[in-house]
Amino acid sequence: MKKYISVLVFSLTLALTVSAQSVQPVYQKPDRTILPSVTITNAATTNVTFSSIGSKVKSFQTTVTKTSGTVAGKVYLQGTVDGVGWITIDSLVLSDQAINSKSFAVTSTSFNSYRAQCVSTGTLVVALTFSYMRRPDE
């Protein structure tokens, strides 16, 4: 039974580590939305996207939690108006520690969608979590 569960968890993890992702929130309240963690293995570029989230976004939070290996790379907060041309707003440089985290304050709300783009290098296994907060009056 343990092998079956392990294979199932591994398969789901592989399914989530696709290059471009748009997944349903795991936690959602009027002022905060959190997407499920995405597992990233070795050198890869992974996108986690929030689409059509409204105009009253206050901040984004990205957290990269080390599972194993040597963590290196960058996480970019990007925004888009048309879903095609992504503009980098800010970034987080990943260092080899247990948790890398950053809050990105949003001063311009002209974008329709946002994403966290993680460009990892080296040999690593990490979990990327991405969330946003907005004013509750929206």
Structure description:
Residues 2-23 have low confidence and may be disordered. The chain has a single domain (2-134), classed as Jelly Rolls (Sandwich), CATH 2.60.120.510. It is mainly β. It is globular and about 40 Å long. The chain has one helix spanning 2-16, and strands at 20-21, 27-29, 32-34, 38-41, 44-50, 57-69, 73-80, 87-94, 99-105, 113-120, 124-134.
List the helices and strands and how they pair.
Layout: H1 2-16, E1 20-21, E2 27-29, E3 32-34, E4 38-41, E5 44-50, E6 57-69, E7 73-80, E8 87-94, E9 99-105, E10 113-120, E11 124-134
Parallel strand pairs: 1-5
Antiparallel strand pairs: 2-3, 3-11, 4-11, 5-10, 6-9, 6-11, 7-8, 7-10
Write out key terms for the chains shown.
single chain; 138 residues; mainly beta; Jelly Rolls; 6-stranded antiparallel sheet; 11% helix
H and E string:
HEEEEEEEEEEE
Percent range of helical residues: 10-25%
Mean of residue pLDDT? Answer: 77
In the predicted model, the low-confidence regions spanning at least 5 consecutive residues are 2-23
Percentage of residues in strands: over 45%
Q: Based on the structure, what is the oligomeric state of the protein chains?
A: single chain
Structural class: mainly beta
Taking the alpha carbons of the first and last residues, their distance comes to 47 Å
